Amino acid sequence: MVIPLFFVFTFLVASSQASVQDFCVADLKLPYGPAGYSCKKPSSVTENDFVFSGLGVPGNTSNIISAAVTPAFDAQFPGLNGLGLSLARLDLATGGVIPMHTHPGASEALIVIQGIICAGFIASDNTVYFKTLNKGDAMVFPQGLLHFQINSGKGSALAFVSFSSPNPGLQILDFALFKNDFPTELVSKTTFLDPAVVKKLKGVLGGTN
């Protein structure tokens, strides 16, 4: 009885090992689907697929929010595909802000490298959690919740973030409301903002209607 059980166990172990796939480097030549990118052929995978050098370069903060995000997601860093994580660099000039936004596909962890950043999020029961973060401080932002980062120091600020998905997704609240053709009267009705204020914000952010 022992010998047959041994062979059954050996077969199960061998089968499970045979089904293990070490990685699924993104094939960026193929379309992105619900499950992410298709896998590159192993014969065409190189060490460069597992290395990303862009996070050492400061982002361009000459814009309306005085901030820049440099992503290292699966589209930029193919080796992340299927691994359940990604990275980004956050540069904030003096007065810079990352407006209220969500990542529908991932939770986020942020660590401050330089400067002072006020960061926080709003829970689904509308409780607000925010904190002023100094160099070396870290904060997490649960998946799907509105959150923000503001440079609250006198100089530039730098942070690195990680996500629990190779493609966390992004929706910025201000852009969703004011950088499109969402009719002014509907924005006003659903936000309780004066129509004149809505039109002004649409003018600033490039929205119409």
Automatic annotation (TrEMBL):
Keyword hit for Disulfide bond: yes
Coiled-coil zones: none
Residues of the Cupin type-1 domain: 53-199
Subcellular locations according to the entry: Secreted, Extracellular space, Apoplast
SUPFAM superfamilies to which the protein is assigned, alphabetical: RmlC-like cupins
Keywords, sorted A to Z: Apoplast, Disulfide bond, Manganese, Metal-binding, Secreted, Signal
Molecular function GO labels: manganese ion binding
Organism superkingdom: Eukaryota
Residues involved in Mn(2+) binding: 101, 103, 108, 147
Keyword Metal-binding: yes
Entry-linked InterPro entries: Cupin_1 (IPR006045), Germin (IPR001929), RmlC-like_jellyroll (IPR014710), RmlC_Cupin_sf (IPR011051)
GO CC annotation terms, alphabetical: apoplast
Binding site for oxalate: 103, 108
Cysteines engaged in disulfide bonds, as pairs: 24-39
Position of the signal peptide: 1-18
Family that this chain belongs to: Belongs to the germin family.
Protein name, per record: Germin-like protein
The species this protein was found in: Lithospermum erythrorhizon (Purple gromwell)
